[in-house]
Design goal:
Elements (H helix, E strand, L loop, with lengths): L2 E10 L2 E10 L2 E13 L10 E6 L3 E6 L5 E5 L3 E4 L13 E3 L6 E4 L12 E8 L2 E6 L3 E5 L4 E5 L18
Length: about 170
C-alpha cells in the first residue's frame, strides 16, 4: 500500500509550498519527495496546485528564506534550493524541476565522527547565505554563502533537533 505524508509547509509571496513524500509499499526507505505550490492569488479563477520539484530522494525538511527561495533537505544528506548559489550539482538522486525557478543540488560534507552522510531533519536561516541544517543525532551544518561546514558534532545515536532558537541581544 502506498501513502502520502506531508513533511513540511512554507509560505512565500507565490503561495503555499507543500513538501511531502510518497512512501512506497510501507517502506520509508523507498520514499520519493515532492514539492507543490498552491497559489494564493485571489484576483482571478482559482489556480490548481503546481508541481515544483520531484525527486527519488526522501525529503525531510523545507524552509523558505526571506528572499522567497525554497530550501529542502533529504535523508541522504542532499540540500536543494531555488536560491542563486555557486553549487555544481553532484551525482545525486534525480531532482527534477517542473515549474518555477531552477533547483540547485549539493551534498553536505560527510559527518566528522563517522564519515557518513547526514540525515537532514531541519533547515533554517536568516538569508540565502546564512543557512543552518540540523541532522539526525544532533549534528549541525552551516552554509555561509560559499561553503558548507559541520559547525557542531552531536552526540550521535538516537535523537533529532526539534528547532533552531537564536537569541538576539540589544
Amino acid at each position: 500500500m502506498n501513502r502520502r505524508e506531508v513533511q513540511a509547509v512554507a509560505e512565500t509571496t507565490a503561495g503555499i509550498h507543500v513538501m511531502f513524500i510518497d512512501v512506497l509499499d510501507d517502506d520509508g526507505a523507498s520514499a520519493v519527495g515532492q514539492v507543490f505550490l498552491e497559489p494564493t492569488d485571489t484576483r482571478g479563477p482559482r489556480q490548481p496546485a503546481r508541481h515544483e520539484l520531484g525527486t527519488t530522494d526522501t525529503l525531510r525538511a523545507l524552509w523558505a528564506s526571506p528572499s522567497g527561495a525554497l530550501w529542502v533537505g533529504s535523508a541522504d544528506g542532499f540540500v536543494a534550493t531555488t536560491a542563486t548559489v555557486p553549487w555544481t550539482t553532484p551525482v545525486a538522486p534525480d531532482y527534477r524541476a517542473f515549474v518555477g525557478p531552477p533547483w540547485h543540488v549539493t551534498a553536505l560534507p560527510l559527518m566528522r565522527g563517522n564519515g557518513l552522510r547526514p540525515n537532514i531533519d531541519l533547515l533554517w536561516g536568516t538569508a540565502d547565505d546564512d543557512v543552518y541544517v540540523g541532522a539526525y543525532g544532533g549534528h549541525i551544518y552551516h552554509w555561509n554563502g560559499s561553503d558548507w561546514t559541520q559547525s557542531f558534532e552531536g552526540a550521535g545515536g538516537a535523537g533529532d533537533l526539534g528547532a533552531f532558537i537564536f537569541l538576539v541581544g540589544d
